[in-house]
């Protein structure tokens, strides 16, 4: 026979059980917040636009003087698949030489002076 307020062996008191539930809930919330922060740092790249132009030539920088040139940062990594494209790294600073291409590809120059086409949706204008 148990007396009032006495907890049988193998059982926890209500206050102990509630404390464990609260601790577990706090741990879950902490882990959920960590996951949320991590997901905010992951960039999901969209596929590059389709390329219909089959030209493999890159114009010289003198030809871009009539176009608006601006700086951009790569928000995704891109690996070229054609000779007229340029591989870029996440966070890389680039000069956009021609953004008039309606197919979604921009002509850029990297800090090493290399020229090539990259998907416009992989860049963020500065």
Protein model, in words:
By secondary structure, the protein is an alpha+beta fold. The chain folds into 2 domains: 10-42; 61-125, SH3 type barrels (Roll). The protein is built from 1 helix and 5 strands. It has one helix at 14-41, and strands spanning 70-74, 93-98, 105-109, 115-119, 123-125. A 5-stranded antiparallel sheet has the order 4-3-2-1-5, with no helix packed on it. A hairpin with a 5-residue loop joins strand 3 and strand 4 (115-119). The radius of gyration is 28 Å and the shape is rod-shaped. The protein starts with 13 loop residues before the first helix and ends with a strand. Mean pLDDT is 78; it is low at 58-66.
Give a brief rundown of this model.
The protein has 126 residues and is of the alpha+beta class.
Which keywords apply here?
single chain; alpha+beta; SH3 type barrels; rod-shaped; five-stranded antiparallel β-sheet; 1 helix; 126 residues
- Name the poorly predicted regions: 58-66
The helix-strand sequence is HEEEEE
| Average pLDDT rating | 78
CATH architectural group of the largest domain: Roll
Shape: rod-shaped
Number of strands: 5
